[in-house]
Design goal:
The complex is a heterodimer of chains A (about 375) and B (about 375). Chain A is of the alpha+beta class and about 375 residues long. Chain A has nine helices and 20 strands. Chain A is elongated. In chain B, the strands form four sheets. Chain B has a six-stranded mixed sheet, with helices on both faces. A six-stranded antiparallel sheet of chain B has the order 13-12-11-14-20-21. Chain B has a five-stranded antiparallel sheet with strand order 15-19-16-17-18, with no helix packed on it. In chain B, strand 17 and strand 18 form a beta hairpin. In chain B, helix 3 packs across helix 4. Classes of the chains: A alpha+beta (about 375), B alpha+beta (about 375). Chains A and B meet through helix 5, helix 6, helix 7 and strand 16 of A and helix 5, helix 6, helix 7 and strand 16 of B.
């Protein structure tokens, strides 16, 4: 199973659009990496370049240190599955899965053994005699995964494989895919726009926006140490709350006229910059609702959304809207005035270029 | 007055009974969510209220008026769908005004009235700046706002929404959820919203109706449904995460009652034991909240060994699904554990907030949670 490296990869199209810009990214041997980002961010182009479905415009793609970007797709040993399953409608599930093995002229008994083995892993043995028209969406995608993996490829690439399935099936199938990947220890790249899906399956997540890699890390890294405002905003549900702040002294800030106490690393980061156009970021889980007081940021409760335990509370403050996640024993009524308190260790500050003051220093695009 | 009342509503498609005698009372101004897995009948029910399907039996009333035999346009309901269904050749204004321009309303809405309604609905949905744009140039969220505006423009007595925000991406879905609820509060129109997403239903609804196989499983407020599930299906379907369901046997031997889970005997506390005294069934399903299932050490009381089936990060929590004697149990932890699928974990089951169901029927037999 190879270690894959994108080295300065750029992909531009004839019309001048640049889908991927100077991508440097390493996927470790046997790792499960998610490429995550909104539509048009370049994540699909990235794996298409790896699979050989698109040519690189600049840079190199390496597998275990050897260049593969000039190789034809079939020589790269990638298995790729897409959102639409692309199964042969006239063949049974068994024959669909057997296809890549038959193409390699494997003896019939080996074909039988390997097809049934992968079918067992994906729990689709009873479906082997059915044609695709008699399979549900989730079953078809399992057959698609089985077909991709039956020949034991070096890399497994998936482009939004669960996009069109129903929510509960997506949850079931992503666990299945992860289980299979752990058993086969296969280098895997999975493209998705859904952060919940990425968090659920990936060892590491690479966040992309507008063709550029923003940050790579575990889900918790991205959640707790976002390098820039894009990542801070894109990762985490409910989304991070952003409030405009102004400087009071060299190392203290205020939201409107409410002083914000900064812990030392953040205060030091603030002293180190003369940027005045700063934004405070805080996650809804790191805000508490307390009684209002003059020295606090106060606001009116607009809406309470229960979530089966905790609830999501919308609060309109003088500095803008804020979202707060409250535990099950806190249920403020709409219309009440409440005070907000921020967990100071969990504050983020972004400069006028949308970089995190604390986490972007001395770090590049990598994590 | 726009309460909606359904009594004995049945609908069949060939051999499939999509709705099997639905009885439901939706209070005036309520935001009601119809929630259930695909094929449960929720969309069929909405379409019957809209008049897009005829009912085979039963009555539907809006206020005091029976509507189940009326043409869709005569029911005074507003509809918005998942796929927006906007007219691509018209601009935003044209789409909003469309329901008012039908020939049958010619006498009712003159040009001035149309203009006035379009601008007030556009203000309500904050799409004034988009009025002259062709709909093809709009983002998903903007299209959904236009679709909602069009549904509201005739000032319907009931607003019907079929998965209106499910397909939007996470951030936008979150924003639209917030907007939709505030909008409904402002206009006060009785709303029926179909969704398969339980977190969406919990967030939006005053009342949730959970459906399965063409029948209503439970009706209640979001907090009520989560705290007091009436069936094992509801217990396993709602909540963040939903409760875990375990098959157990009631064992009255040797100082029991015990709850037997494979080879392990779980000891109920006094309160639960008292409740179990009145239970006649031997085969039970119990539901436990995720927070009452914790990592433990082998050999401790109420502890069983389980196999990891899946693990995933949900926010800052690691959620682990383990198999316990054939049942899947979900627990969560804030520890950064490096678990692999197939690992054995010792887990402790705390029975202080347990709900007990009949294994066969799924109906509630009792609960150690006070009502």
């Amino acid at each position: 199973m190879p270690r894959i490296e994108f080295s300065g990869v750029t992909k531009s199209y004839a019309d001048g659009t640049q889908a991927v810009a100077d991508l440097n990214l390493v996927v470790e041997d046997g790792e499960f990496l998610c490429l995550l980002g909104p539509s048009g961010c370049g994540k699909s182009s990235t794996i298409r370049v790896l699979a050989g479905l698109e040519a690189v415009s600049e840079g190199m793609v390496l597998a275990d240190g050897h260049r593969i970007d000039h190789l034809p797709p079939q020589a790269r040993d990638c298995a790729m599955i897409f959102e639409n399953y692309a199964l042969y409608p006239h063949l049974t599930a068994f024959e669909n899965i057997a296809m890549p093995l038959r193409a390699r002229r494997l003896p019939a008994q080996d074909v039988e053994r390997r097809v049934m083995e992968i079918a067992r892993m994906l729990r689709i043995e009873p479906l082997m005699a059915r044609r695709p028209s008699r399979l549900s969406g989730g079953e078809k995608q399992r057959v698609g995964v089985a077909r991709a993996l039956v020949r034991e490829p070096a890399m497994f690439l998936m482009d939004e494989p669960l996009g069109h399935l129903e929510a509960y099936l997506r949850v079931e199938l992503r666990a299945e895919i992860r289980r299979l990947q752990e058993r086969l220890v296969i280098t895997t790249i999975y493209v998705t726009h859904d952060q919940g899906e990425a968090a659920a399956v990936a060892d590491r997540i690479a966040v992309m926006s507008a063709g550029r890699l923003q940050q790579v890390g575990s889900f918790l890294d991205l959640l707790d140490r976002p390098l820039n405002r894009f990542v801070a905003e894109f990762i985490g549900e409910p989304p991070m709350v952003f409030l405009p702040v102004h400087r009071v002294t060299a190392d203290s800030l205020a939201v409107k006229d409410v002083q914000i106490r900064l812990p030392e690393p953040l205060a030091a980061a603030l002293r180190a910059t003369d940027d005045c156009n700063l934004t405070l970021g805080v996650r809804p889980n790191d805000i508490s609702i307390v009684t209002p007081a003059p020295e606090r940021l106060n606001g009116e409760v607009v809406l309470v959304q229960p979530q089966g335990g905790h609830a999501i509370v919308g609060v309109e403050t003088s500095a803008g809207p804020a979202t707060v996640v409250v535990p099950s024993d806190v249920r403020p009524a709409a219309g009440t005035i409440v005070g907000l308190v921020f967990e100071s260790e969990a504050l983020h500050l972004f400069d006028s270029a949308a970089r995190s003051l604390l986490h972007s220093r001395g770090e590049g695009g990598g994590g | 007055m726009a309460e909606v009342q359904l009594s004995g509503v049945c609908k069949r498609f060939g051999p499939i009974e999509a709705l099997r005698g639905i009885n439901l009372m939706i209070p005036d101004r309520a935001y009601l969510c119809l929630l259930g897995p695909s094929g449960c009948g929720k969309t069929t029910l909405l379409r019957c209220v809209a008049g897009l399907e005829t009912v085979d039996a039963g009555e539907i009333r809006i206020g005091s008026r029976r509507i189940e035999a009326l043409e869709p346009f005569a029911r005074n309901v507003g509809l918005a769908f998942q796929n927006y269904a906007l007219y691509p050749h018209l601009d935003v204004k044209g789409n909003l005004a469309f329901p008012l321009r039908a020939p049958r309303y010619k006498a009712q809405f003159d040009a001035e009235e149309i203009e006035q309604r379009v601008s007030s609905v556009a203000a309500l949905l904050q799409i004034e700046a988009l009025l002259d744009k062709p709909v093809a140039t709009l983002s998903g969220g903007q299209k959904q706002r236009v679709a909602l505006g069009r549904a509201l423009i005739r000032k319907p007595t009931v607003l019907l929404l079929d998965e209106p925000i499910t397909h939007l991406d996470a951030r936008l879905r979150y924003e639209m959820r917030f907007e939709l609820k505030l909008l409904q509060r402002r206009v006060g129109t009785t709303t029926i919203h179909v969704t398969h997403d339980q977190l969406e239903a919990l967030a939006l609804a005053d009342l949730i109706v959970i459906m399965r196989n063409g029948v209503v499983e439970q009706v209640g407020t979001p907090d009520d449904i989560c705290a007091h599930p009436e069936t094992s299906f509801v217990a396993g379907f709602v909540g963040d995460p939903p409760m875990s369901l375990l098959r157990v046997e009631l064992d009255r031997e040797a100082g029991g009652p015990w709850l037997r889970l494979g080879a392990t005997r779980l000891q109920p506390d006094e309160r639960l034991a008292r409740m179990l005294d009145s239970v006649r069934e031997q085969h039970l399903k119990i539901a436990l909240p995720a927070d009452d299932i914790s990592l433990s050490h082998q050999g401790e009381a109420q502890t069983i060994l389980a196999t990891v089936q899946a693990h995933e990060w949900v926010g800052r929590e690691l959620q682990i699904v383990v198999a316990v004697d054939g049942s899947a149990v979900r627990l969560r932890t804030r520890k950064r554990l490096a678990v692999r699928i197939g690992d054995k974990l010792a887990i402790r089951l705390d029975l202080k907030r347990v709900h007990i169901f009949d294994l066969k029927t799924g109906r509630k037999l009792g609960s150690s949670v006070s009502a």
